[in-house]
């Protein structure tokens, strides 16, 4: 399918042919959910921890004799029912990461790209190059009407564009190898350069 190409100055720069097997797939919400959940699970620190009975400092002596007191039998003051005692079945340090097949990950990325195109929120940019300052880039973005935006460039980012964009809120810039489902979906508009389209099609075909 054909898609128009624009420049940062909002002028036409021809058109580009997008591969149907990368940008024209059926949108599957279940697949996107699986990939996003896999991404976020890998990011969890998993450092939550509570103390078990063996980790509580305190005496190991039986608090009082087993029989004859009229009270419930107790074996340790470090048990969960006492103040300062252990936590039963509490969280432990662990990894939340789980496996997801490579084919499912690739299909999820293609589905995310197809979803943006179907919503008409995919824009093809001639190149993401600027020598100006953040103020100049912000004025260009306002003219283009880009608010919450992710820009994906080729294998190397333009240094001037990266520096100008890094302090703009809700505006992210990634190289093509960093393209992922979560970042694509969390921004309203997806902007791909022609170099990014070529790299992504080569990677996902």
Structure description:
- This protein is an alpha/beta fold.
- It folds into 2 domains: 2-44 and 97-204, Ribosomal Protein L4, Chain: A (3-Layer(aba) Sandwich); 50-90, no CATH class.
- It has helices at 20-23, 29-43, 102-118, 134-144, 159-165, 181-186, 194-204, and strands at 2-6, 12-17, 122-125, 149-152, 171-174, 189-193.
- The two termini are 15 Å apart.
- The protein is elongated and about 95 Å long.
- Helix 2 (29-43) crosses helix 3 (102-118) and helix 4 packs across helix 5.
- The model has no long low-confidence stretch (mean pLDDT 94).
Structural class: alpha/beta
Spatial strand arrangement across the major sheet: 2-1-3-6-4-5
Just give the CATH class of the largest domain: Alpha Beta
> What fraction of the residues are assigned to beta strands by DSSP?
5-15%
Q: Can you write the helix and strand succession as a string? A: EEHHHEHEHEHEH
Runs in which pLDDT lies below 50 for 5 or more consecutive residues are none
GO biological process, one term: translation
Family: Belongs to the universal ribosomal protein uL4 family.
GO cellular component, one term: ribosome
Pfam family, one: Ribosomal_L4
């Amino acid at each position: 399918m054909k898609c128009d190409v624009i420049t940062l100055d909002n002028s036409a720069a021809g058109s580009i042919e997008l591969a149907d097997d990368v940008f024209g797939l059926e949108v599957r919400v279940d697949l996107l959910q699986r990939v996003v959940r896999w991404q976020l699970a890998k990011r969890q620190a998993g450092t939550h921890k509570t103390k078990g009975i063996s980790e509580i400092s305190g005496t190991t002596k039986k608090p009082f004799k087993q029989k004859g007191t009229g009270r419930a039998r107790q074996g340790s003051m470090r048990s969960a029912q006492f103040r300062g005692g252990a936590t039963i079945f509490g969280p432990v340090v662990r990894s939340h990461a789980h496996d997801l097949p490579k084919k499912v990950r690739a299909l999820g990325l293609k589905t995310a790209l197809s979803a943006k195109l179907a919503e008409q929120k995919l824009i093809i940019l001639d190149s993401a190059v600027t020598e100006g300052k953040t103020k100049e880039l912000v004025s260009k973005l306002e003219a283009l009407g880009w608010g919450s935006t992710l820009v994906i460039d080729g294998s190397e980012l333009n240094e001037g564009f990266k520096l100008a964009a890094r302090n703009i809120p809700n505006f992210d810039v990634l190289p093509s190898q960093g393209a992922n489902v979560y970042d694509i979906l969390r921004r309203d508009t997806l902007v791909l350069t022609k170099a990014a389209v070529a790299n992504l099609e080569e990677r996902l075909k």
